[in-house]
Amino acid sequence: MTEEPVVTGAALRTRRALLAGAGAAGAAxxxxxxxxxxDNGTASTSPGPAVTQTGDAGGGDRQxxxxxARTTDIPVGGGAVLAAQGIVITxxxxxxxxxxxxxxxxxxxxxxxxxxxxxxxxxxxxxxxIEDGSVQSGPSPAPLAPKDVKVSGDHISLA
Length: 159
Prior knowledge:
- This protein is an alpha+beta fold.
- Helix content is 19%, strand content 27%.
- It contains two helices and eleven strands.
- The strands form three sheets. Strands 2-3-4-9 form a four-stranded antiparallel sheet, with no helix packed on it. The chain has a four-stranded antiparallel sheet with strand order 5-6-7-8, with no helix packed on it.
- It starts with 8 loop residues before the first helix and ends with a strand.
């Protein structure tokens, strides 16, 4: 069994410098290969994608992009909890849509369902009206905060 020599002090620093220098030289070779053979010292830039004067500057259906839900997604006499969007949307009567904050005022849990005419928090069984967010039962000391929504065609968005 042979022992390898231990490198310390100046020899270790020299070996590191040699390896770092070799790495930098290799990178310079690779980068120079990416240059234009007719390079005159000025950097060239890509023109990027062509800009057109048609369509939506936002890149698509602007109304659909802002839409939280479609009217057909919200059942009459019920609603939907849209947790990712931070809203509960209900339809108490045909064509009437309401929005509420999904955070239960009792202890900050998120409501999870809309069933039987109420918005329901399963943490402590608070229930809120789909019409106005008022407390129907449970320990919640306050109603759900309203959020203004508007309907444009079949899209529901924040007002």
